[in-house]
Each structure stands twice: as C-alpha cells, then as structure tokens.
Amino acid sequence: MINNSENRIAYKGDGTAEEFAIPFKVLEKTDIIVVIADEDKNETILKKDYFVDLDKMTVKYPGYPPGEEPAENERPPKLQEGWQLIIKREVPVTQEITLGNKWPFTVIEKALDKITMILQDLLGVNKRQITLPDAADMKDFSAILPYPQEGEALVWGK
Q: Per its UniProt entry, which superkingdom is the organism in (predicted)?
C-alpha cells in the first residue's frame, strides 16, 4: 500500500547531519536520486559519495557502502548550512510482471499494462515542459504563469 503522494524531500544543511530519512516507499536503491543544492540553488546530481540504506530507509551523505569508505580527506564535507540535500524517487515506467494466461490474470495484466502506458505517455509530456529546479520551495511562490499578452514579458528580478 502507498498512502503518501510524495516522491521527494528536501533537507536543509546544518553542518552536522549525515543521515537523512526517506519518508516515501522505494523499491530499489537505483530508484533514488540525490541532489545537492548550494546557497544559490545551483544543483548537482550526485553520482557518488552517498549511500542508500533501504533497511533503515535513509540516505547517508557523505556515505559509502560498509567497508568501501575512502580516506577522510577524500570525502566531501557534511551538508553545509544554507545548502540542501534533495532525495527523490524516479522509478522506471515499466511493467515487468507476467501473470499467465488464465483468467483473471490476463485482465489484471492488461490493466497493469494500460496503467504503465498511461504513465509513459504522461512522462513523455512531462519531459517537454518547463520545470523548476528540485531546490525550488513551492511554498515561496506559484508556478502558474499568467496568460500571455502581446507586448508583455515574463521577467525574474529582485
């Protein structure tokens, strides 16, 4: 059962925290993407220096699989104050279950296939849209654009 609609969480750095909870369901470690955002919201998708522990449902940063820790001077610093660590889930949109050819399994599998196709269609649409960075705090502003009018422009400023 999945009773939470969230698939991402952002943590603010304090210079001491190393372990960050994953509050949403995850099936595979490879479904987790970890992003670091600096004070200016410049984002870096991490390829290393973090460890996903699905038993504890946490991400450790900096973190490594047990026994594979590099020397202390080769590790990045802990998440600094003013920085963010964003944990998000990105599951491949596939349906990999074959239930067999007996009723009702054919009906169930067809329904799962249809849901997967719908999700793939939505993902295709989503990839062609303007999006906000992961570090954007949606409580700070609305992402709804005004209706376009001739001679007007959309401008960000202070």
A: Bacteria
Strand partners, 8: 88
* DSSP secondary structure, 90-124, as one string: -----------SSTTHHHHHHHHHHHHHHHHHHHH
**Which pTM was predicted?**
0.76
**Could you report the per-residue pLDDT of 81-136, keeping only the tens digit for each?**
999 999 999 888 888 877 877 778 888 888 888 888 888 888 888 877 888 888 88
Domain ranges of the chain: 8-91, 93-130
* Chain length of the chain: 158
- The torsion defined by the Cα of 16, 41, 131 and 116, in degrees rounded to 10, comes to -20
E strands, 13-90, are 19-21, 32-37, 43-45, 51-53, 58-60, 84-89
Q: Are 29 and 59 in contact (CB under 8 A)?
A: no
DSSP 30: G
Burial class (CB in 10 A: 0-12, 13-18, 19+), 52: buried
